[in-house]
């Protein structure tokens, strides 16, 4: 008696379609709504002419420095373990685990570096640099015409969010056998980056769509890595 063939555990075709549709959604909503300005208007104090959350300990120190350093420290520990394992393979690390640790380590480098490079050459400015919020630069959206005289703002996409976005790659621990848990962990990882980005919005350091595009880029990179690594056939 022939057994029924199981459907693919990871449907890359569906995932790529979701990513494509989400990019179009983010682009259109970002271009044709004023959500970015509505959020920053809410956090901006017109009487004080500043963002009150800008220098608050919770936002500036805890979320922007301490939490970032904790996440970075976790990454450094991971690199150290893998370096030791590369020099002298650790018997406690199985092939299954080694592959996944290397996957996460790679994502933790590629995601922040990619976002950082894009940000470096971006013309978009931080909210606190915008003339609407007592700055000097004009507010611009992603597809707006850029005057030659405009100095680059180097604010897009959201850099601080990328500190946590690579955590979405932890989903690899549940692949290929438990895609539901993998999706949950993936979402939690993106959520961590989103929260870090939102606190920056409270400070006037980023717009919402800067963070959303960072989340999209991280998703793209992780999905591409999963497909290239042929995760469905790994251990």
Provide keyphrases for this structure.
235 residues
Care to describe what's here?
- The chain has 235 residues and is an all-alpha fold.
- It has 7 helices and no strands.
- The protein starts with 11 loop residues before the first helix and ends in a 7-residue tail after the last helix.
- The relative contact order is 0.16.
Give the topology.
Layout lengths: L11 H21 L2 H9 L13 H31 L7 H26 L41 H4 L13 H25 L4 H21 L7
* End-to-end Cα distance: 27 Å
Low-confidence blocks of residues: 1-8
Radius of gyration over all CA atoms, rounded: 20 Å
Q: Give the strand tally.
A: 0
What is the molecular shape?
globular
Q: Order of helices and strands, N to C?
A: HHHHHHH
Number of domains: 1
Q: How large is the count of helical segments?
A: 7
Quaternary structure of the protein: single chain
Strand content: under 5%
Helix content: 55-70%
The biggest sheet amounts to: none
